[in-house]
Structure to design on (165 residues):
């Protein structure tokens, strides 16, 4: 990711030179990252979602300054995008007004992935759900090792049998 901090982000000329059409923009928020698609002219299409804090918001087109909310804006490398930059911008705008935000299944990152790749997915959400799975797997491994250790302590000859198996 590269960051466009320290520049006059309110200028659409700066925005057009810093961010290519169809770029996947990311800005850090408290506890998560917010995502949007740069559509040119200093404008970003994003799922407002929880960015409004008090209530969910629709897919909307806002200025880069409004999207950034005073924070650094970076470009996520999307060199594997399925669509051309023009098509990505058209896809983003095609969902303007949609108001079906759902943090786990239809958030701003899902929206950007759909615009770029044709598939809704969120790496943030996948990472969150991977933690409990990894924890459960670690518990299962620890439980098996504990059982094996207890078994071999109560059956001294079992160590040789288990090692040869």
């Amino acid at each position: 990711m590269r960051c466009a901090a320290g520049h006059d982000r309110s200028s659409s000329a700066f925005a057009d030179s810093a961010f290519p059409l169809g770029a996947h923009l990311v800005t850090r928020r408290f506890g998560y990252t917010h995502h949007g698609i740069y559509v040119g002219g200093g404008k970003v299409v994003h799922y407002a979602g929880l960015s409004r804090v008090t209530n969910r918001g629709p897919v909307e087109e806002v200025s880069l300054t409004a999207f950034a909310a005073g924070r650094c804006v970076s470009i996520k490398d999307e060199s594997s995008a399925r669509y051309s930059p023009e098509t990505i911008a058209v896809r983003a705008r095609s969902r303007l007004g949609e108001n079906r935000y759902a943090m786990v299944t239809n958030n701003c990152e899902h929206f950007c992935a759909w615009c770029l790749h044709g598939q809704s997915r969120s790496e943030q959400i996948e990472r969150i759900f991977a933690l409990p799975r990894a924890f459960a797997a670690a518990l299962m491994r620890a439980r098996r090792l504990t059982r094996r250790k207890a078994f071999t302590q109560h059956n001294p000859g079992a160590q040789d049998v288990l090692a040869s198996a």
User: Anything to note?
Assistant: The mean pLDDT is 79.
